[in-house]
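Worked example (supplementary).
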Amino acid sequence: MSKNKIYLDYASTTPIDPKVMKIMLPYLSEKFGNTMSLHSFGQEAKLALDESREKVANLIGAKNAEIVFTGSATESNNLALKGVVLANKNKGRHIIISSIEHPCIVESAKWLEKQGFEIDKLKVDKCGLVDQKEVKKLIKKDTILVSVMHANNEIGTIEPIKEIGEICKKRGIFFHTDAAQTLGKIPIDVNKMNIDLLTASSHKMYGPKGVGFLFIREGIRVEPILHGGGQEFGLRSSTVNVADIVGFAKACEICQKSMKKEERRLIKLRDKLVFKILKKVEFSKLNGHPKKRLPNNINFSFSFIEGEALVIQLDLLGIAASTGSACSSAKLEPSHVLLAIGLRPQEAHGSLRLSLGRWTTEKEIDKVFKVLVKAIKRLRKISPFKKI
Amino acid sequence: MRKTGPYTKKVIEYFRNPKNFGKIKNPDGIGKVGNAVCGDTMWLYIKVGKDKEGEEIIKDIKFETFGCVAALATSSVITDLAKGKTLRAAMKIDRNKIVKSLGGLPPIKIHCSVLAASALSEAIYDYLRKMKKEIPKELQMKHQRTEKEKKEIEKRYKDWIKVEKGMHKKLP
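After joint prediction of all chains, the assembly is encoded as:
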């Protein structure tokens, strides 16, 4: 990364940890074998795949055979929803998701709706939390799957998935959670947390892009989406992407070792910036839950200004951030997450997400605060709504 | 040339150094377009004077805009294009002229240039109406179109706008 630039968009993607990159390189050159081959090249690759599977399974308390490597979190979410529903349609036709899921869950659910399945969405409160009582209320006799994300990608709210999982477990309903934003950041134990299926992504945790996994509890039937050579227990045919998987596993290992310390460090930095903004910037509002939130997530709404302009302004000043503003989206609609927590469209337009990561320093946080104040002041000066 | 977001160098230049932003005290005409609820809002103020031939010109022009980079850049560039022009010439500034002056806009942002053009038309319309002067037919039609769009937006965002209005009243 450029030295004079500050990257605060780790929730979007992260750079690869140098240790991860190092371990991957041989698998892009001399250890290039196909895991399905019988010769030594193939067996070397197969061994690397098995070892990686074990490391990844270890991070979430799963068995090796419960991990299916995929190409992305999007693919894992598609496989979880479509795969489980299609394989279990004789049990029921009703699915429940939350109203703040990532588009790949929302769109997969929409597709299933077109195939004749019934979808219900769980509302969230103004902090973005799903209400467990509503889960119980929405469950019907023919509900087969509930999917609630572990933590939201925009506002960082951490959902009570252990409790939701328990409700599902008692009723014999499969429970899936999208953990793309949480794996490696906060502890996950699929058994203690009553999770049947879990989605994860490598590039959000300092691993390479193009690889993810889906945890599928032993005994759950899933219909594959990709048919072919039968790799990944027949659930995801494709020649195995060994280098990226090896990298992903290394990234998991690093996170597992450093998680506790890193969590504390990020929360300290996060809260420092949040309190400073709340104290010094008029008409600012923290979106998401004040406590039950990702250690690295900050999401604010600044009245009277628009998020895209703010992001570009910050970019020109050397800071990379993101927004849920309509003007920045392809559809010109404000973020469905911000609307779901009851923000007025104008507040959603003025939203800014700052996400911290492994290389964020206190010095950077202090600088970001100064630059942010300047940027907001400037844009408010041009805005017709408020003069500061 | 490194791009910033989806924008040209010119757009970013206007965004970085906006020309003529702010309010005009006792303006001769105001054009208010857009709606903060659904996105961009532009307020354009004009002061009308006369040139040597005695024809009415835009002596001064300023803007205040809530919106994205494209909205701010189009507001800024239209003030540049209109300043010093006769009212007749200013009325003819359309979105194509604005887009061209900015070296292009991403397709999804073209509506910002439409908004800027409407803001200027509305400001001139406001002036002519207040002075009880004859309003050219083309300008009347533009005004009707803007009004119609305003109503459509209000209908679509009825509930939100009510909340917004309440909020603005509370502000100092």
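Two points are worth noting when inspecting this output. Chain A has two domains: 6-12+259-382, 18-254. Chain A has eleven helices and twelve strands.
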